[in-house]
Design goal:
The complex is a heterodimer of chains A (about 110) and B (about 325).
Chain A: H1 5-16, E1 22-23, H2 24-31, H3 35-47, E2 51-55, H4 58-63, E3 70-74, H5 76-99
Antiparallel strand pairs in A: 1-3, 2-3
Helix pairs in contact in A: 1-5, 2-3
Chain B: H1 2-5, H2 7-13, H3 19-35, H4 49-60, H5 65-72, H6 76-79, H7 84-91, H8 93-103, H9 115-130, H10 137-157, H11 161-175, H12 182-190, H13 196-212, H14 216-238, H15 243-268, H16 270-292, H17 297-312
Classes of the chains: A mainly alpha (about 110), B mainly alpha (about 325).
């Protein structure tokens, strides 16, 4: 998995509350990222099984009178994998900082 | 007057009906018209048009005189002082029972209901769906969802595929943006680069998101972002690909957007296409005049025009 900055942002947000379900547009708005960035990330994460997508319950979207959304949530495996991946990225960046003699600047 | 309004019903009813049946149907129509007098549909039409249309639909579906009478009288109990007892006396038990069964029909009761009652239900919904644009948006949405879920399968089960198809088209138009705007057309063209088996799923997801965006500006930004990200998206869905596949995807996207764009221009606004065609014809005509005219005056004028245009531009030297 390529850990681009955008990917890290998405994973960090999802890990805030692993049980929560999100829809694509919501992530675009919260993270300030373009739709063309978010959906490829969601597709990639769904492909590798870190998140799973489900169609919204008809009872919910019909009462709010709009078409059904697709909702995404971290899988159990996804929570572990995402945490590891983020930790690896953090390690790598702190290594870079250490090499530059700026250790401790980055939390 | 009443007979004129009922002409489509009586024409379909054919020879199978006795003179008595015909008289009863005309009487039902007259009674319904009197009772609904002054009431209007949301479309502004006199209310009586609705029961008459429903009667025409059930007659076409092969219903007998009792069911056609019930169609004509199906809303009088709820909307007027007329009572079911009165209907039983005036038009017989067959008619009154059908009207009662129709108004108490629930989704769960469909399995055990009689064919005539189901036909009435379908016809009632079909005419309501044909005029749904006059109803409040959230109600439109709920009715369409219910139609698609329960009534379309019902129509197919009763052996009326045409009715099923029309109901399904009308509800899909409400639910999935049948009044296809510029944005959903652009999305439709752009998903052509995705693998065939996943197109419908992503299109449904994006159309749903698009429907909740409030302004044209936000819709435009959403769609533009998707189109820009589409080649990369396609390559993610296809798995690891070679660079030439990626270039091919970009080329395909450009072509499908161009085709989609032309299609949108043609379908949304024929005037634009007409103006373009006129401009082309005009250029051909002018070019012909310059090239083939016996006098060289037009050519000289054109030259002067081009020179004056070039002179008017600021020079670099």
């Amino acid at each position: 998995m390529k850990m681009t900055l955008q990917m890290q942002l998405v994973l960090r947000l999802l890990l805030e509350d692993p049980q929560r379900e999100w829809y694509g547009l919501q992530l675009c708005e919260l993270l300030g990222l373009a739709s063309g960035t978010i959906y490829p990330i969601l597709a990639r994460l769904e492909q590798v099984g870190w998140i799973e997508g489900v169609w919204e319950d008809p009872a919910v979207h019909e009462t709010s009178s709009r078409p059904r959304r697709r909702l995404y949530r971290l899988t159990a495996d996804g929570v572990v994998q995402a945490e590891n991946a983020l930790a690896r990225t953090r390690n790598r960046s702190s290594l870079v900082w250490a090499r530059l003699g700026l250790e401790g600047r980055l939390s | 007057m009443t007979e004129g309004m009922l002409a489509p019903v009586l024409a379909v009813a054919g020879e199978g009906w006795s003179a008595d049946d015909r008289r009863r149907v005309v009487r039902a129509c007259r009674v319904a018209k009197r009772l609904h007098d002054g009431q209007r549909r949301r479309s502004g039409d006199p209310y009586i048009r609705h029961p008459v249309e429903v009667a025409a639909i059930v007659a076409k579906g092969g219903a007998g005189p009792d069911t056609v009478c019930a169609a004509l009288l199906h809303d009088v109990i709820d909307d007027t002082p007329y009572t079911i007892q009165r209907m039983r006396v005036d038009f017989g038990r067959g008619v009154a029972d059908r009207v009662t069964a129709l108004s108490s029909l629930t989704a769960a009761g469909i399995a055990s209901a009689e064919r005539d009652v189901l036909l009435l239900k379908l016809a009632d919904r079909l005419h309501n769906m044909r005029t749904i644009q006059f109803v409040a948006p959230d109600k439109q949405w709920n009715k369409s969802a219910e139609t698609l879920r329960t009534l379309v399968p019902l129509a197919r089960r009763l052996g009326m595929p045409d009715m099923g198809r029309e109901l399904s088209e009308l509800s899909c138009r409400v639910l999935y943006g049948g009044k296809r705007g510029l944005f959903s057309s652009a999305l439709r063209a752009a998903v052509a680069v995705l693998p065939r088996e996943v197109r419908a799923r992503w299109l449904a997801e994006w159309t749903a998101e698009l429907a909740t965006l409030p302004t044209r500006r936000s819709k435009a930004r959403f769609v533009a972002g998707l189109i820009v990200g589409m080649p990369r998206f396609a390559s993610i869905l296809r798995g690891p690909t070679k660079p030439h596949r990626h270039i091919a995807t970009v080329a395909k996207l450009v072509v499908s957007m161009a085709v989609g764009g032309t299609w949108v221009t043609v379908t949304i606004n024929p005037a634009v296409l007409w103006a373009l065609a006129m401009a082309v014809v005009g250029c051909l005509f002018l070019g012909g005049a310059v090239l083939f005219a016996t006098s060289d005056k037009p050519a000289r004028r054109l030259r002067e025009f081009i020179e004056s245009w070039r002179d008017s531009r600021p020079r670099k030297d």
